[in-house]
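Reopening: C-alpha cells for the pyridoxal-5'-phosphate complex, inputs below.
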Amino acid sequence: AKRSQILNFSAGPACLPTKILEQAAKDLIDYAETGISLAELSHRSSICSNLIKSTQNNLRKLLGIPDNYSILFMQGGGTAQFSAVVYNLLAYQVAKNPSTVSNMKCDYIVTGSWGLKAAHEAKRLGAMVNIVSDPKKIDGKYGRIPDESTWNFSQNPAYIHYCDNETVDGVEFAEFPKSLPEGVPVICDMSSNILSREFDVSKYAVIYAGAQKNFGIAGITMIIVRNDILERADAPNCAKLGIPITPVILDYKTTSDCNSLYNTLPMFNVRVANLVFENLLESGGVAAQERISKRKAEKLYSLLEKYPDVFEIVPGKGYRSRMNVTFRMGNLEEKFISESKDLGFEGLKGHRSVGGIRASFYNAMPEDGVDRLIEFMETFVKRYVS
Ligand code: PLP
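Re-run output (same inputs, fresh job):
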C-alpha cells in the first residue's frame, strides 16, 4: 500500500504528519546544510546543543512551563521513568525529610494497566507502595475512576503517582484530581495525552511522557521537573538511610546538570520532536489541539452511543479518553478489523492484554481521518446489524 492510502489509528508508536517525516528524512541525510546526517553529528556540537535548546524553548512555550521547572530528555521510554521516579523522589525525601523517609510510602492512584505497572516497579525496587485506589480490585477490570472520597492515601507519602491517560484501557482523567493531600510531590505519566490539552504544570513535581504518541518517535522521553526536586536529590545520604542510590542514567540532577547530554542522546529523535513542536506552535498550539481532540473523540463516542446493541464502550462516562477510544463488538470484532484493514485503517485492534477495539486519536490523526472511520462504521452497522 502507499502511505497516502493508510490511516493509522495505532495506540503507539502513533502516526506522524507526512510533512514532518519528509523534513526528518532530509535531516537524516544532511542536517542544516552541514553535509552531515543528524545521526552522524556529535551530540556535543554547538549545532546539537542549539537543537536541544530550541526544542526545550518550544516545549516551554507550548505548555507554558514556568521558569522554576527544567525540561530533560532521557532514554528508556515511559518504562524507565517508572524506575526513575522511585529513585529520584526517595532521594529528594532523603534530603527533605531524613528522619521520616524510611517510613514513607509511595502512593499510586491506579486507573489502568500502566499505572499498575508503575506501582509494580516501585515495589520491585523495594519501595513501600500504597495503592490509593485500584478499580480492578473491585470491578475485575479497568474502566472507571472511583470517587475520590474512596481514595486511601498514606499518612505521609513520599510522592503521589498517577497516569493521566491509560492507553490500554481508554480511561482518562477529565481534570486534575481534587482531593490530593497538600504539599506532597505529584508525579504524572502523560505519555499518551501530553500536548493534547492545556494543563497547569505548577500543580506537578514531575511530568513525564515518551515521545512516540504525541510528539515523535520512540527513543526519547520528556521530563518536566520542578527545580527543588532536582536540587534536593542527594545520593550519598541515601546509602546511610538504606535508600537506594539512583543509577546515574536515571538521575534527574545529573541529566539536568549536563543539559540532557550525560551520555549520547539520539539527536534525530530530538529533531523530530522539535518539528512536531514547531508545527503545533504554527497551528494554534495546545489550545487548538484541545478543541480538535475533544471534537474527534465526541464524534466517535456519539456514534458508539447511537448503537448500544452493537458497541459496548469500555470506560464509563466521565472518564473516557480522548486519545484512545476503547470498545467491544462481541463476535463482530474480527469482521470489523478485517474490513477496516481493507479500507486502509490500521491499528484498530485492542491491546493484546484486553482485546476489543481501540481507535487512537493522537494529535497527528486528522479530523477527516476520524470522519472516514465513522462513515465506515455507519455502513458496517447497516450491513451486518439492522
Ligand atoms: N505509560 C503509558 C501511559 C503508556 O501508554 C506507555 C506505552 O504505551 C508507557 C508508559 C510505556 O512507555 P514505553 O514503551 O515508552 O516504555
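The first helix runs from residue 18 to 29. Residues 303 and 377 are 8 Å apart (CA to CA). Marking as resolved unless the reporter disagrees.
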